[in-house]
Amino acid sequence: MNKTITYNRAVATKITLILVCILPLVGFAQSANSESESELTVMGAELAGNEEQTIPAWTGGITTPPAAYKVGDVHPDPFG
Questions:
Q1: Which of 8, 17, 21, 29 has an alpha carbon 20 to 30 Å from 41's alpha carbon atom?
Q2: Sign of the C-alpha dihedral computed for residues 45, 49, 50 and 51 taken in this order
């Protein structure tokens, strides 16, 4: 058999196998994301804190720059 035909068939088989393996995962990720969208932050972390309140609920993160920040300077530690 011609080497080009054999090569093309091998490439087509590999692409098909990759798509068969990956496409179901994409569908699962989208359905899981839509179900729990209101329970997660924009980065995928849980919104709620823990029961002991040692980890607070997420309320949106840092929305304003720290008082010591000046445009063009190194970002100061907002927690220190």
A1: 21
A2: negative
